[in-house]
Amino acid sequence: MSLSSPAILESAGVTRARLDGLTDRLAGTESESSIDVRTPVTDDVIGTIPDATADGVETVVERARRAQARWAATPIGERAAVIERFGRLVAKRREPLLDLLQLETGKSRRHGFEEVLDVPLSCSYYAAVGPDAISESRRMDPIPLVSTARVTSDPVGVVGVISPWNYPVTLSMADAVPALLAGNAVVLKPDAKTPFVALELAAMLEEAGLPEGVLQIVTGEGSTVGPALIDRVDYVAFTGSTETGRQVAERAGRNLIDCSLELGGKNPLVVLDDADVEEAARGAAQGAFTNAGQLCLAPERIYVHESCFEAFLDAFVGETRSLSLGHTFDYGPDVGSLIDDAQHTRVADTVDSAVEDGASLVSGGRRRPDVGPYCYEPTILTDVEPDADVACEETFGPVVTVTPVPDADSAIDAANDSPYGLNASVWSQNTDRAREVARRIDCGTVCINDTYLTGWAALDAPMGGMGDSGIGRRHGPEGIRRFTESKTIATSRTGPLVPPDFVPTEWFVRGLSTLTALRRRLLGWGR
After folding, report:
1. Cβ neighbours, 10 Å, residue 152
2. How far apart are CA 37 and CA 48, in angstroms?
3. Active-site residue identified among 84, 262, 300, 319
4. Is 62 assigned a catalytic role?
5. Which of 259, 296, 443, 447 is the catalytic position?
6. Which one of 100, 111, 197, 350 is separated from 389 by 20 to 30 angstroms, measured CA to CA?
């Protein structure tokens, strides 16, 4: 049953005044039209946002650029304190933030909780580790006793962050937080489907002490705002589809600016013959159907050793059918809604096409308008040909294929038979064996006996994709250094490194060659 907009806002615990106040933060953005923001819970309009023009983007970026110099001059310890306070605010206001997140995305509250929990952890990590990661360092002296070399890390300037609708809290702050800590200003372009969460987070950052103007929000259609932003910033961090990522990288390249791209995935999950199939089935159901499968790290292809295929499939079907589908603003339902009609139709068409081509529908495969306008049942397919679309192209919905394989080598070959390489999962009771398999899978992250959470939660380790899944890395020291420019400051204690007037050039050449050879031997170079 469709509810009126005021009714759904009341159900979510979100007031019209709260949304209007967030929209007011966009005042002054030059636009010629507005965009309706709909909730996937009921498909009602819950607000409107400016559809920024290219000139509007330029104004926003210039505001950020003016604020950046002052922020960069702020001692990094003070910047870290702002980030830490922001993380604490997010933790303190978790429940109202979850209400807004669910209203915009339609995801279940438990999956929203995973997302919101990530921000305080990331903030504390970068506040603690970030200052050392980008502090000035001394490098090996070019000529001992004569010269020195030091490296500094300067902010790039203004960072453009283009974030997606599926994880609007995590995937905006995973880029914005380290960029801010490094001394940059940030212009965040959230997806037009989920702008209010971004605006709420921006307000919290300012409350935590971030100076006005250092974080700017610009809203609008990606086809206009994206290119205009890339043409004006000094670095771009993009999360989205591979197709759009190629366009972002091409435009960034023309502007000679760097970028990081987290793109699509067709993630494999491998169940070896010694795996605990019950545990693997629980993990597969949790991973594949998190956020209704709208997760770039979710497994979509499962390869199971034929000796335990039937046992795994029975357990996996049981785990899947036990998941509750629905939408309430509490911790009841396990799986929520898809984001909109386009995504809903894409998922349904993918399943229907696979079945028409001979795939077996083992579980799910139905639209559920009785639950919500865009709800779709968690779906399991078998008997899928390796070259079928559902086996090759990212579905980005609650759909997974399960295929038997004769041995571990076949599973690895199947896992690597994809242009994507974002995340993989290996299940075995022998962790040493699982690690050997993991090393042979071409993905940026491989989790053992878990689908994605242990990899994402490893904040001190880099996370990112190979192949068509992107370039660059989040997390770890790499996650903050990408937002800096390295500068080498080399000093000579003796003036120009040229032969003194009283030393014949031939003597100087022989002496320097001897010293260089001696140094190479002492350092162990060239062995």
Report:
1. 14
2. 6
3. 262
4. no
5. 296
6. 111
Q: Are 178 and 130 in contact (CB under 8 A)?
A: yes
How many residues are given for the chain?
527
What are the domain boundaries of the chain? 5-263+477-484, 267-464
Q: Does the pLDDT at position 3 exceed 70? A: no
Average pLDDT of span 500-516: 85
The gap from C-alpha 102 to its chain's centroid, in whole angstroms, comes to 19
Of 3.30.230.70, 3.40.605.10, 3.30.70.60, 3.40.50.720, the CATH number of 5-263+477-484 is: 3.40.605.10
* Amino acid (one-letter) located at 512: L
List strand residue ranges (DSSP E) for 428-476, in order. Answer: 445-448, 466-467, 470-471
Alpha-carbon span 151 to 307, nearest angstrom: 56
What Rg, from alpha-carbon coordinates, does the chain have?
26
**Beta strand pairing status for 267-271 and 423-427?**
parallel
- State the chain's mean pLDDT as an integer: 95
For residues 267 and 416, the answer to whether their CB atoms sit within 8 Å is no
pTM: 0.95
Task: Evaluate if residue 2 carries a pLDDT over 80.
Answer: no
The set of residues, in sequence order, having a beta carbon less than 8 Å from that of 317 and lying 6+ positions away, is 362, 363, 380
Cα–Cα distance, 414 to 411 (Å, whole number)? 5
**First CA to last CA across the chain, in angstroms?**
75
Contacting residues for 336 by C-beta, under 8 A, at least 6 apart? 102, 105, 106, 107, 108, 111, 291, 292, 326, 327, 372, 375
| Residue 296 falls in the annotated catalytic set | yes
Percent of the chain with pLDDT over 70: 99
